[in-house]
Amino acid sequence: MPTYTLKSLREKLLLEWTYNSNAIEGNTLTLNETKVVLESITVGGKTMREHLEVINHRDAIMYAEKIVKNRETLSEWQIKNIHRLVLKEINDEYAGVYRDQQVFISGAEHTPPAPLFIQEQMEQLIKWHEHEAEELHPITRGAILHAIFVGIHPFIDGNGYVSRLLLNLELMKEGFPPVVIKVENRLTYYKALDKAHTQKAYHDFIQLVATEAEDSLDLYLKAVN
């Protein structure tokens, strides 16, 4: 495809990815307001945190793109770096640091592990990614990675952002465009995740990711046609 077409598609997906990921977490900036913030303009009546969530998410995407370009393998160090970018100037004390407190996920049956077990479970996640996950389709692998990670909930804040970044990191490594989990699908998204955590049943969540992946691929197919 022409260079400008690819550039505009990337910008469109980056904007929609950032807007929807933030909106899922409760950010009140609209799509157009998010675009304005990405252009380094402040929006009146919105909090500093909401502005930082947009800028930080953009920076985290750029870091993920660098990982893809350099063909780096997934590591705890990378995950902590992504989280550090997500929480930069929002909560520097806990940015890139595993939590030292018990947390609960609002509205979910699943309870994340106690802080004592986080390191072990994160190491197991990386081992799974390096071995069993290699045999899986990229969409399945990315979806399960997202689900397991957010189930561990290793950080005090920002786990949802990081999990969606990890999902897309897996897909982008395999040549897929990033998927956008849309805010209007938030309830379905949370239900599928809770089912994955409580029943180890990943089908619903994988199907949700696959549907969103088709939407992203359709954008590129329309551009080609």
Question: How is this structure best summarized?
Answer:
Helices cover 63% and strands 0% of the residues.
Task: Give structural notes.
- One of its GO terms (molecular function) is ATP binding.
- The chain is mostly helical and 225 residues long.
- It has a single domain (3-224), classed as Fic-like fold (Orthogonal Bundle).
- Helix content is 63%, strand content 0%.
- The chain is built from nine helices and no strands.
- The chain has helices spanning 3-24, 31-38, 48-69, 76-86, 118-130, 138-152, 159-173, 186-199, 203-224.
- Helix 3 (48-69) packs parallel to helix 7.
- It is globular.
Name a few traits of the molecule.
Fic-like fold, 225 residues, mainly alpha
Topology, pairings included?
Elements: H1 3-24, H2 31-38, H3 48-69, H4 76-86, H5 118-130, H6 138-152, H7 159-173, H8 186-199, H9 203-224
Shape, principal axes of CA atoms: globular
The name of the CATH architecture is Orthogonal Bundle
CATH class: Mainly Alpha
CATH topology: Fic-like fold
Q: How is the main sheet built?
A: none
Poorly predicted regions: none
Q: What fraction of residues sit in β-strands?
A: under 5%
The proportion of residues forming helix, as a percent range, comes to 55-70%
Domain Fido: 74-211
Protein name: Fic family protein
Keywords: ATP-binding, Nucleotide-binding
Site (Important for autoinhibition of adenylyltransferase activity): 25
